[in-house]
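SAMPLE LOG
Freezer: B-3
Tube label: C17
Construct: single chain, 483 aa
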Amino acid sequence: MMGESILEKHRRDVEAIQEAFSRMQNKETCSLRKSPRPSNVTRASHYKSQCFQLDINALNRVLVVDPIERVVLVEPRVTMQQLAKATLEYGMMVPVLPEFKGITVGGAIMGTGLESASHRFGLFSDQCLAYEVLLGNGTIIRATPQEHADLFYGIVGSYGSLGILLSVTLKLIPAQPWVQLKYRTFQSIKDTIYYFSHLQTAPDFLEGFVFAKDHIVVVEGSYLSLEASQSTDHTFSQKYFWSPWFYQHVKEKMRPEEIDEEKMPLSHYLFRHDRGAFWIGSYGTEWTALPRYFLESRWNLPTLARFLFQGTSQNGPKDPSPWYRFLLGWAMSSHRLYTWLHTHSEEWVRKRCIIQDFCIPLDQAVHFIEQVLDETQITPLWLCPISSSLTPQIFSPHWNSHAKMLLNVGVYGIPRSPQDATECVSQLEDWTKRAGGRKMLYSYSQYTPEQFWEIYPKHAYDRLRKTYHADVWTPIDEKVLMR
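STRUCTURE (predicted):
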């Protein structure tokens, strides 16, 4: 009865959205009204001010969890934290669950999302079985791999430019309450990539951290039952806001001749990178970072910033101390950091920071990582292997017919050189294209429209726009290029 009530509420809300949309048709371009939660897209969304803004924020519920059929039906504004809580009550989870608590289901599909299970299961969108989609002519259709398959695959990474998600059906797999972690330390990037490419048995979870060219740590995770967890003594958790950040804990692994092992609660593991947004929050430890930020971004005094800090260089953040975590850890969730970004800092971040993910064929990864380290001097780098897809996800970073396995290289930080960070981004985009890879489009891009459409198939996109009456939605290049 409760499930029927929730589904009825969903249907009423969908009808209200459809009615609101019908009142603006043929009048102007449409986009989604901003969510009360901060967006996990790091670029600005000035285009929204020129659009009719459709409000779908009421669609924020988990509708049905079916552990027998192993599916969950959710609305697009459901967060990863909500999704995990609802499914773990049944001992189930979505195979790939992006690591920030506030990422929404719709955001992880429209913007693409991956995680440390991506070497086995691909992107979050690869776990989707069906979409309920509002089209540009006001009709609602169901898209699956069998029905409207071109839209089902094409909508991934399209940033709402082909249709609006109203509900999503996702597959589930059995989960265990604990994760057994193994830490392997490597002294060269080449050896690390060789290890990734020659794994005999894939663990449930797999990721890596580049702290220096001669200090890389690979973290493997395997589900651990409650009974089996009793035999493992060492435990790492992030129960308190002053607990060590995960990357900081991993960095302590310095012994290449040994394999460290410990266990971690699954509920903590899934969102282990949420505190500090990987390590971005640690830039508050660098003594020039905050004064420069306030002078340049908040108080509009860039000349004074240049005068005060002339000759000083960005040395990079220090690992957050216990005192730093105790005093500021409460403010270092990804939710609070994204709120800060979108309230005050979008342009400053665009010019000063690199927050980008690049999906590179595994056989090109060594050279790419070395170039990134030499050009930006940003560490750590995040490494996340991802299985490629042959399905026509035309904007997806893992749509690649030439490489079975890709490596997502996460570059998050402030480059050490004094040049504008946008120049570094442009260089990294060029290297990515040369390597036969793609970047994720949640962040700012330096592509010209011509360069963008050399990478992505414009003819296929235009065909989808025409077939599904998508002219009413803001085109993807106007959203992601922001030029």
